[in-house]
Design a protein that fits this description.
single chain, mainly alpha
């Protein structure tokens, strides 16, 4: 049952984003920024954690989960180190995810050739 709930929540988020892309003039990059900022704001007001606990992996996989992770990292760093934590926290909290995305993208580039759309 948990898998189904995670699948449905993640699918609903993806469907909402696709509807947004289809019905507005927003470009994918802007929509990605909106999702990350939404996750950070929901984390800041204390809504994201209960939602993620209820939804499971479905809420943690999309970009909203990344925004929440950035917020949590900044909050923890500010609590430990003060003002400088604003600059360090997000990088510390997301370093593994960003590094793995870069490494695996680079490895994938060895096997696939990208082609520009005309």
């Amino acid at each position: 049952m948990e898998y189904l709930k995670a699948f449905l929540v993640g699918g609903a988020i993806c469907a909402a984003v696709q509807i947004l892309l289809d019905n507005t003039k927003l470009m994918p990059g802007r929509v990605m920024v909106i999702l990350v900022c939404t996750g950070a704001v929901l984390g800041a007001i204390g809504v994201y954690e209960p939602f993620a606990e209820w939804a499971g992996a479905g809420a943690g996989v999309p970009l909203t989960g990344f925004g929440n992770a950035l917020f949590k990292g900044v909050k923890e760093a500010i609590d430990k180190e003060g003002f400088i934590g604003i600059f360090k926290g997000g990088f510390t909290a997301s370093a593994v995810g960003i590094s793995s995305a870069l490494i695996f993208s680079y490895i994938a580039s060895w096997f696939f050739d990208s082609k520009m759309k005309s």
